[in-house]
Amino acid sequence: MAGVANPMAGFRLVAVDEKKRFMLALIAPAVLVLVFFQILPILTGANASFRDWHLNDPKKTWIGLTNYAYVVRDREFLNVVLPNTFGFLAASVAASLIAGLMLALLLNRQFPGRWLVQTIVLLPLMVAPVIAAIMIRWMFNDQFGIVNVILEAFGIAPIAWLTQKWTAFFAILLTDVWLWTPWFALLLLAALQSLPPEPFEAAQIDAASAWRTFRYITLPMLRPVIVVCVVIRAIDAFRTFDIVWTISGGGPARATEVFSIYAYVEAFQFLNFGRGSAAAVLGAIIIVVFAMALYRLLNRWVEVSR
Amino acid sequence: MQGLSRAWGLTPLRGVAAALFAIALTLGAVVPALAQEQEIKVGYMKNPIQDASLDIMEKWAKANNVKLTRIPMAYSVFMEKVTATLTSGADQFDMIWHNDDWGQLWKKWLETTDDVKGLENADPWPLLAFWNDDHKLTTVPMAHTVGTFFYRTDLVKPEEVPKTFEELVSVSQRLQKEGKVKWGYVGGMSMNNTWFSFLWTLWANNCDILKPMLERDNEKLKAARFEPALTEPCHREIVEYWWDAINTHKISPPGMTAYGRNEANAIFMAGDAAFTVVDSTHFGEFSDPKRSKIVGKVGMAPFPVGPRAKVPTSWNEIWGWAIPIGVPAPKKKLVKEMLAAMMSDEAGQIEMWKKTGGPPPNVKLWPKLAAEDPDFAALKHAVFDQTPITHAAYYFAEWPAVHKAYSDAVIAAVSGKREDIAKVLEENVEKVRRAGLGTN
Question: What ipTM does the predicted assembly reach?
Answer without folding.
Answer: 0.79
